[in-house]
TrEMBL record:
Source superkingdom: Eukaryota
Protein name: Diphthine--ammonia ligase
GO biological process, any: protein histidyl modification to diphthamide
Residue ranges constituting the Diphthamide synthase domain according to the UniProt record: 1-227
EC id: 6.3.1.14
């Protein structure tokens, strides 16, 4: 893709450009926002580095690329919410105008490169603007380890006394604001200052890449500076007379003409690229051993489809709207719109907004209809009406929802959310989440209008809904075939998709598994999924030091289901819910009251007939804090009698039932409190076929 690089002059944007080029994208322009008063160095921007902005103008001469600039005024960080939404006179709207200008001046512009490492504040703003303009965000430094990054930058940098014959990265400190860094650090290159930064990190937790504002840098040479470089000299050092520990250098430069004889591909030949799988995940993949006896053959059944009526069920403050399917319509578009209209009616009838939807489950009769359904789904959840953070989503193909049905939609709605209206948007102030739209090495960006993870801000347990993860290579967004020679496609996809799921858990600090579903598009995937899950939950911690720090998981939270299709023709998709802690005790709560509550907990559980009725439950998670207690059960059914126990418990409880309409299980159409999930086969966590599987949620 042709991309414009947002450059402040700093090392991060420069190094990110190298990775975008390495991934096959073409640098066609540079973009820079600078203070309206060009004599001003420091601007109170929450978003853009402006120190050294007067030197960025030389980059056009060094690269012979268009440099598109726009001025920003002081105090223009109007919207400082972590997840940005369009706000008049905010500096992000200046970024929008800069990129609109770039689209006019650069034909075929497709993407925007940015250098965010840890700052979700920066990332979400670039992604918001890209989304509005139909551009792809490239963020190849996102969530990278800072020590690894700085090591790589030093490897790609010009070393002391090295000639400038070949273009190499030359970034130097121009501002310092941390203990151990002072005026003597200014002007030093990354290789020169790296040892000191490592010591400061060990002693004072100084961010090695300066992510805490410890220092700023300016790039004077880079592999894409094909036509010349900048020879820097210090004009003056500011801050020596202050007592705030902040020092900055005003730099002057001399442009030195130089035309590189090497191609950019040759210059980036040694650029380190992170592997798709980290070392510990490679170890896990190598330990997957499946015997021939474990292979599963499809069960011969007479094909049948299901019909389900809409269920609306409230458990605590969560409203579960299940089994929405078209009532009218003669096309994919009209049927999808009918389902959306039904959902609108239910929300309006309960005085709720679309922004209060936390999670959704979307079943498609034919995956070929994905783009059409997705477009209407996207329109319903668009930012201009609902603000940022669309719900998490699992989307699978199930041709058993009924011939001609096209789709079935179920959602979970937070009825207690605080809503603020802003210029026509119903902003959910109670929702938090992870919505990554840019390409990186971290994990796949979203391929639809959904967030990777959603949770309620005030929830002490941070119960989080995780979107379904398939085995996409994050940097390219292509489906993986084989991760290494000798490692088959089935195992590769099972491992990589679970790695992405685990990455989301760790990123949001919610690593306790509550429910898990793995959708597979072929029965041959079941043994691979079961073995990969067993290794992940318990076995790797026993055989590998790389997994020693991972908490053991109860593998019984998993249900494996065979469906007809998955997005991108993937072989498996991992999804579920997680939390930060199962039990959170309020520090202000009276110790005696806590003791009484703990003593009564067992009695409350014994008295809960609804849960005790489910004798076939295999896994239970009780999630409690000082104000609420919820229980989630994962189990399997092997008889009609087992199912009747579930049915009697609803709607006091909410259930999701994974079942095959072709089985001998008799399921009534109008069951309240049950999301009916038609699949071809159901398997337990060990890969054994079961009649059905269920997830049960309720207050305890």
């Amino acid at each position: 893709m042709k991309f414009i690089a947002l450059v402040s002059g700093g090392k991060d944007s420069c190094y990110s450009i190298l990775h975008s080029i390495k991934q096959g994208h073409e640098l066609v322009a540079l973009g820079n926002l600078h203070p309206y008063d060009e004599d001003q160095q420091e601007l109170d921007s929450f978003m853009f580095q402006t120190v050294g902005h007067d030197l960025v103008k030389w980059y056009q001469q060094c690269t012979q690329l268009p440099l598109i600039r726009r001025a920003i005024r002081p105090e223009s960080s109007k919207n400082v919410s972590l997840n940005y939404y369009p706000t008049e006179t905010d500096e992000i709207e200046d970024l929008l105008e800069l990129l609109i200008d770039a689209q006019k001046k650069v034909p075929g512009l497709e993407a925007v490169n940015a250098g965010a490492i840890l700052s979700s504040y920066q990332r979400t703003r670039v992604e918001d603007v890209c989304s509005r303009l139909g551009l792809v965000s490239l963020s190849y430094l996102w969530q990278r380890d800072q020590k690894d990054l700085m090591s790589e930058m030093c490897l790609m940098s010009k070393q002391s006394n090295e000639e400038n014959v070949t273009p190499k990265m030359d970034a130097r400190l121009i501002k310092t604001a941390a203990i151990g860094l002072d005026g003597s650090s200014l002007g030093k290159s990354l290789p020169q200052v790296f040892p000191l930064l490592q010591r400061l990190n060990e002693r004072f937790e100084v961010h090695i890449c300066g992510e805490g504002g410890e220092f700023e840098t300016m790039v004077f040479d880079a592999p894409f500076f094909k036509y010349g470089y900048l020879e820097p000299h210090v004009l003056r050092i500011e801050g020596a007379d202050n007592f705030d520990g902040v020092y900055s250098a005003r730099m002057g430069v001399t442009f030195v003409k130089r035309e590189s004889q090497k191609t950019i591909e040759e210059l980036l030949l040694n650029l380190p690229v992170p592997p798709v799988l980290e070392h510990r995940w490679t170890e896990l993949a190598e330990n997957v051993c499946i015997s021939d006896e474990a292979s599963i053959k499809p069960t011969s059944k007479t094909a049948q489809t299901h019909t389900a009526q809409t269920s609306i069920n409230k458990i605590g403050y969560m409203l579960y709207v299940s089994n929405l399917s078209p009532r009218t319509g003669d096309s994919v578009e009209s049927k999808t719109q009918d389902v959306i209209n039904q959902l609108k009616e239910i929300l309006e009838g309960n005085k709720l907004f679309a922004s209060q939807i936390m999670s959704s489950s979307l079943l498609l009769e034919k995956m070929v209809d994905f783009s059409t359904v997705n477009a209407l789904y996207n329109r319903f959840f668009q930012v201009r009406d609902n603000g940022p953070l669309p719900p998490s989503r699992a989307c699978v193909g199930s041709n058993l929802i009924g011939e001609g049905t096209t789709l079935q939609l179920s959602v979970v709605v937070d009825t207690a959310a605080v809503i603020t209206e802003h210029k026509g948007m119903a902003l959910n102030m109670s929702k938090d989440g992870l919505h990554v739209q840019g390409r990186s090495f971290w994990a796949p960006c979203n391929i639809g209008p959904y967030s990777q993870a959603i949770w309620k801000k005030e929830d002490p347990n941070r119960i989080s809904f995780i979107s379904g993860q398939i085995a996409l290579v994050p940097a390219t967004m292509e489906l993986v075939s084989s991760l290494s020679p000798g490692l088959g496609e089935d195992i590769s996809q099972a491992v990589l998709a679970l790695r992405h799921f685990d990455t989301l858990k760790r990123t949001i600090d919610a690593e306790v598994q509550v429910t898990t579903v793995c959708y597979v598009s072929g029965n041959q995937m079941v043994p691979a999924v079961a073995k990969v899950w067993a290794l992940y939950c318990t076995e790797m911690a026993e055989i590998s030091d790389a997994w020693f720090d991972k908490a053991l998981e109860d593998p019984r939270s998993l249900i494996i289901v065979k469906v007809s299709e998955l997005p991108r023709q993937a072989k498996c998709e991992w999804g579920g819910t997680v939390c930060n802690k199962l039990s959170v005790v309020d520090e202000d709560q009276d110790d005696h009251a806590t003791e009484i509550d703990d003593n009564n907990a067992g009695k409350k559980e014994e008295d809960n007939d609804d849960f005790l009725r489910i004798t076939s439950a295999s896994y239970q998670a009780t999630i409690k804090n000082s104000t609420s207690s919820r229980r989630v059960v994962t189990g399997y059914l092997d008889s009609q009698e087992d199912f009747e126990k579930i049915a009697k418990s609803c709607p006091r409880l909410q259930a999701t039932l994974f079942y095959s309409p072709s089985s001998n299980l008799s399921v009534s159409e109008g069951l309240p409190g049950i999301e009916l999930y038609p699949v071809e086969q159901v398997y337990d966590y060990e890969g054994k076929e079961r009649l059905a599987g269920f997830q049960l949620t309720g207050e305890s």
